[in-house]
From TrEMBL, chain A:
This protein's encoding gene: thiB
GO cellular component, one term: outer membrane-bounded periplasmic space
Protein's UniProt keywords contain Plastid: no
Main location (coarse class): periplasm
Family according to the record: Belongs to the bacterial solute-binding protein 1 family.
Protein name: Thiamine-binding periplasmic protein
Alphabetized InterPro entries for the sequence: SBP (IPR006059), ThiB (IPR005967), ThiB-like (IPR005948)
Subcellular location: Periplasm
Keyword annotations: Periplasm, Signal, Transport
UniProtKB/TrEMBL annotation, chain B:
UniProt keyword list: Cell membrane, Membrane, Transmembrane, Transmembrane helix, Transport
GO terms classed as biological process: transmembrane transport
Organism annotation: Rhodalgimonas zhirmunskyi
Residues in ABC transmembrane type-1 domain copies: 48-252, 320-499
Official protein name in the record: Thiamine/thiamine pyrophosphate ABC transporter permease ThiP
UniProtKB/TrEMBL annotation, chain C:
The keyword Aminoacyl-tRNA synthetase belongs to this UniProt entry's keyword annotation: no
ABC transporter domain boundaries: 2-230
Organism: Rhodalgimonas zhirmunskyi
Name of this protein: ATP-binding cassette domain-containing protein
Keywords of the record: ATP-binding, Cell inner membrane, Cell membrane, Membrane, Nucleotide-binding, Translocase, Transport
InterPro entries: AAA+_ATPase, ABC_SmlMolc_Importer, ABC_transporter-like_ATP-bd, ABC_transporter-like_CS, P-loop_NTPase
Domain of life: Bacteria
Record-level Gene Ontology MF annotations: ATP binding; ATP hydrolysis activity
């Protein structure tokens, strides 16, 4: 396709290109689905960019990165949107991304950053959230406030597999960050609370809603969905005393893009109100830059930064391998 | 005859090459890109043991339980028998997550069974673990096993049973003389097919398995592709899986050949030795138990789905159209391939069972991407992969019938010089109408459920019904997703029914 | 003229040798004990069995490489002569064009053949609704339209009653006379042979003997045949 466009470019050199430029953004599937923010954002950006914005959905964040690696330098993508901080080190290592060259002011309470700052040279955040165990207040009156309390209780949870799911991987890193060498032991004491481990978030959440578990690994923003979209205030997320693991979703520009300026404009747009205001009620995450109208009512305020647990991206790859084998050992017993 | 038997016909060659191109070539592409095959770790050994172990158990139980059900269905006629047989096929074509939720509504922590146990003050039972994996696999595959074995029963001519009756044989003697030899011929084949199916289980094993103990090779492949991007490891695991599945499939062909599971389900042979009260009660119980086991989870899926239909967004209907079109195209392709391969290429047809869709998708992507945007090929690739994945079932249905046709009528055809298109038009299509339409119905239903979802080839412009269902789930809309699941179930069954019915209009013998 | 030139057929432990000719238009019975290889001989001519040595010639031309459908033969089997899913007329029509693309004239020829065998009003019936005799008539109608110089029959009327069988043999004789074809018919019943054939081939003890006049063979049977005939 790109060769064609290139050939067309040469052929038409000297005369104004009537064709509108195309910006290809690879993202995860739920972002582009009819119920995600994709369609709204596409419309809003195309109103101002005089271009054709094309979202290409590819599984989840991990699948997105895998696809990019498969395509390598030949990729058609101009921007990749939807990696999170547990993947950015791997993504950076591919050498496919170009520095964004921006010093944005964001409202992401990243534990390892100065307040409001963002120092990653390749990736820019667009939203964030916290992993949490979500439960039904009418069925579980007192939710555990620590992993220890959870392990000691007979509360049943359903979690996702860190080998096939992003939140599953987040939980793995959460426990590892908090318990270090004791992580395997913690998993051991948690194992009798775990009803089952599902391949992805949807299966786990479905099982929870069917009453298979008292709590499900999801996000602190999940209750907001039920409150706002379903007028159902029965769900709550357990905020842990030692903090909840943070997931920051980011986007980056490809070094090989044939639309570098358009890509830059998209990244700027991403942090503008038109993009950010679509996030809370369509992606059900916290916007990276709080919209001028604030968060919709029904959204709990984000946790403060010292309440967030997050492993620095660079440390993730090494830690993941170790944590994964501990997890497997502890839960296989 | 000599000429007919040994020359490979162009149609056979092209079809075999096509299937290989969609199965082996992608695998080769992955290996080539990886440059090396990964090693086998201790965790992989554990996964291999679990994969094979659960497949052994699932296949054995499915077959053992299917024998009394098939026996009862073979010798009892009752109102709704046909309908029941069709409905019993439904679990096989359900999307995994829908079926799992149905099973959990019965056997889960707050399912019917545990609610009842709780009311009686009894301790609750847990479905999570090996038992749950096996239970779900039996739920999926019991209908398949029942149909294959039922076909074996009905292949025993009625005269044999009349002869047995005239000799005053008792039920046990009839079993030994007539039924036991049939079972020995049919059961190994059915067992092997289900074994191979269970080998590549991933979502069921993980969701109901309760944790990393229940890790299958397929999960390893998934992880290697998606999180580790270790193509060598993915390719190695795929080769192991291909070896296991391919080996089992070849053994199945070699050990015995069940005579298909297509035609002749209408006929109930009168069984004189079975007209005792005890036999009647036994058969009644077997049919009742199977119906309860298979239909209650299905009923709960339907109930849950009905509530979801009203909140289902309009995009689901568009997706239904896409899926119907896709299913029809895939069915057409499956039938062309199956007709070409049914007589001697059954082993080739089985390849689709033996390899992970993830490997097919990635390999094709590697091959196609340098030449043309994969998105441009989204539809044809999805059609082709679905066709290749449904092919094993189609050749399983058509193969034995085709060979029987050849045996009975091949010489007459040869003498009259009926060859090629004329043979297809005037003999095969008319003579095998029943099993062809059964195979087409099965393929259509399977393609509707989108066996071969290839995420890498997903088009931004359209989505299949199963994909939209998963997207709804991903957007918290579980109720609407249940509605989409019901729509999927109904449209799959409808397609199956339409095709299957089309094949039984004209009675000619 | 059909010629067996030092033909040797071998199937596992079974062997059959044949070395003789049959004159055009001859009506020949193939008789002999069961299991001796009568059907094998027919199958070799039809091309279903390949000789390991020797040649089978038609008009001095080797037909060994020809497909069954390209040999100068029409064949009636013991059973499965009519496709059950096709009408009687279609079954006969296959004898003219295997693709059943029939011209007006060819269709008229099918009707004529069916009328000739006494099945004029049964064109649209399916074989399943016909009696055994009617099925044989339909098969003979097809032989009629095939118009081949050699008709092979492998115990064709074995399942019919005596009177019906006689009727069929007479009809067969008429068909053969009409087309001028040579006929080779396997039969286990010597009276069939006596009624229909001029000469007979004895197949026994691994040999297919050259045809001799039927009368001669039955009145003065060799040992193998005597044991079979049971006197």
């Amino acid at each position: 396709m790109r060769h064609l466009a290139f050939a067309a470019g040469i052929f038409l050199a000297g005369q104004a290109l009537a064709e509108t430029p195309v910006l290809k953004v690879y993202t995860y599937d739920s972002f582009v689905s009819d119920w995600g923010p994709g369609p709204v954002i596409e419309k809003r950006f195309e109103e101002v960019c005089d271009c054709d914005l094309q979202f290409v959905g590819a599984g989840d964040g991990a699948a997105l990165l895998a696809r990019l690696k498969l395509e390598g330098k030949r990729t058609d993508a101009d921007v990749v949107l939807g990696l999170d901080t547990s993947l950015t080190a791997q993504a950076a290592e591919t050498g496919l991304f170009a520095p964004h060259g921006k010093t944005p002011k964001v409202d992401v309470p990243t534990p390892y950053e100065e307040a409001g700052a963002w120092s990653d040279p390749l990736f820019l955040p667009y939203d964030y959230g916290y992993l949490a165990f979500v439960y039904d207040k009418t069925k579980l009156s007192e939710a555990p406030k620590t992993f220890e309390e959870l392990a000691a209780s007979d509360v049943k949870i359903v979690i996702q597999d860190p080998r096939s799911s992003t939140p599953g991987l987040g939980l793995l890193l959460w426990v590892k960050a908090q318990y270090g060498d004791q992580a395997e032991a913690m998993w051991g004491t948690l194992s009798d609370n775990i009803v089952t481990v599902t391949p992805g978030w949807s299966e786990a959440y479905g099982l929870f809603l069917e009453g298979e578990a008292d709590m499900v690994l999801s996000y602190t923003t999940s209750p907001a969905y039920h409150r706002i979209a379903e007028k159902d205030d029965s769900k709550a997320a357990a905020v842990f005393e030692q903090g909840n693991y943070m997931q920051i979703e980011v986007a980056g520009k490809l070094a090989g893009t044939d639309q570098p300026e358009l890509a830059d404009r998209f990244l700027d747009f991403m942090l503008s109100d038109a993009f950010q205001s679509a996030i809370p009620e369509l992606n059900w995450m916290y916007p990276a830059v709080t919209p001028k109208d604030g968060l919709p009512s029904g959204f709990d305020a984000p946790l403060i930064s010292d309440h967030a647990v997050l492993i620095e991206p660079a440390k993730v790859p090494a830690m993941r391998a170790e944590a994964l084998s501990e997890w497997q050992t502890a839960l296989s017993r | 005859m000599a000429n007919r038997a040994f020359k490979i016909k162009p149609a056979e060659g092209i079809s075999a090459a096509f299937v290989a191109a969609f199965v082996l070539v992608p695998l080769a592409a992955v290996i080539w890109r990886a440059g090396t095959l990964g090693g086998f770790s201790a965790a992989d050994w554990a996964a291999l043991r679990f994969t094979v172990g659960q497949a052994l158990l699932s296949a054995s139980l499915s077959v053992i339980l299917a024998v009394p059900v098939a026996k009862a269905l073979a010798r009892r006629n009752f109102r709704g028998r046909r309908m029941l047989i069709t409905l019993l096929g439904a679990p096989f074509i359900l999307p995994v997550i829908v079926a799992v939720l149905g099973i959990l509504a019965v056997f889960g922590r707050s399912g019917l069974v545990n609610t009842a146990l709780d009311a009686l003050g009894l301790p609750e039972i847990s479905i999570y673990g090996l038992q749950g994996v096996v239970l779900a696999h039996v739920f999926f595959n019991l209908p398949l096993a029942t149909r294959m074995i039922l076909q074996g029963w009905q292949a025993i001519p009625g005269e044999r049973f009349r002869l047995a009756a005239s000799l005053g044989m008792r039920p046990r003697q009839v079993s030994r003389v007539l039924e036991w030899p049939m079972l020995r011929a049919v059961v190994p084949g059915a067992w092997m097919v289900i074994f191979v199916l269970c080998l590549s289980s991933f979502a069921v094993a993980l969701t109901l398995g309760g944790g990393p103990r229940a890790t299958t090779l397929e999960l390893g492949i998934y992880q290697a592709f998606r999180y580790d991007f270790d193509l060598g490891r993915a390719a190695m695991l795929a080769v192991v899986q291909l070896g296991l599945a391919g080996g089992a499939a070849l053994v199945a062909l070699w050990v015995s050949v069940p005579s298909g599971f297509g035609a002749g389900l209408d006929r109930v042979v009168r069984r004189y030795e079975a007209e005792t009260v005890l036999a009647r009660v036994g058969d009644g119980l077997a049919i009742f138990a199977a119906a309860v086991f298979l239909l209650i989870p299905l009923g709960l899926v339907i109930l849950n789905g009905i509530r979801g239909l009203s909140v289902m967004p309009s995009q689901v209907w568009e997706a239904l159209g896409v899926s119907l079109l896709l299913a029809l195209c895939a069915t057409a392709l499956t039938m062309v391939l199956a007709l070409a391969l049914a007589r001697r290429g059954e082993a080739v047809g089985y390849l689709g069972l033996a390899i992970s869709p993830m490997v097919i998708g990635t390999g094709l992507f590697l091959l196609v991407n340098p030449v043309i945007s994969p998105m441009a090929l989204a539809f044809p690739v999805t059609v082709a992969v679905n066709a290749v994945m449904a092919l094993p079932f189609a050749v399983r249905v058509i193969g034995p019938e085709m060979r029987a046709l050849e045996a009975d009528w091949g010489r007459l055809g040869a003498v009259l010089n009926i060859r090629g298109w004329a043979w297809l038009r005037w003999v095969v299509l008319l003579r095998l109408r029943k099993s062809l339409s059964f195979a087409a119905g099965l393929s259509a239903a399977l393609a509707m459920g989108d066996l071969g979802v290839v995420a890498l080839f997903a088009s931004p412009d359209w989505a299949t019904l199963p994909l939209q269902m998963y997207r709804l789930m991903g957007a918290y809309q579980m109720q609407a997703a249940a509605g989409a699941g019901l729509l999927l179930l109904m449209s799959s069954l409808f397609l199956f029914w339409i095709f299957d019915r089309g094949g039984r209009g004209d009675v000619d013998v | 003229m059909l010629t067996f030139e030092c033909v040797l057929i071998r199937q596992e432990a079974f062997e059959l040798v044949a070395d003789f000719s049959i004159t055009p238009g001859a009506r020949v019975a193939v008789i002999g004990p069961s299991g001796a290889g009568k059907s094998t001989l027919i199958n070799a001519i039809a091309g279903f069995v390949e000789p390991v040595a020797g040649r089978i010639l038609w008009k001095d031309r080797d037909i060994g490489a020809n497909r069954p459908g390209d040999r100068p033969i029409a064949l009636i089997f013991q059973d499965n002569n009519l496709f059950p899913h096709l009408s009687v007329a279609q079954n006969v029509g296959l004898g003219i064009d295997p693709g059943l693309k029939l011209s007006q004239a060819q269709r008229a020829r099918v009707s004529w053949a069916l009328e000739r065998v006494g099945m004029a009003d049964m064109e649209d019936r399916k074989p399943g609704s016909l009696s055994g005799g009617q099925q044989s008539r339909a098969a003979l109608a097809r032989v009629l339209v095939q118009d081949k110089p050699l008709i092979l029959l492998d115990e064709p009327f074995a399942a019919l009653g005596p009177a019906l069988k006689v009727e069929m043999l007479d009809l067969l004789t008429e068909v053969a006379d009409e087309t001028g074809a040579a006929v080779l018919m396997v039969s286990h019943d010597p009276t069939d042979a006596a009624r229909f054939a001029q000469s007979a081939i004895l197949v026994a003890e691994g040999r297919a003997e050259a045809p001799v006049p039927v009368q001669e063979l039955l009145e003065n049977p060799p040992d193998a045949l005597r044991a079979y005939l049971g006197d």
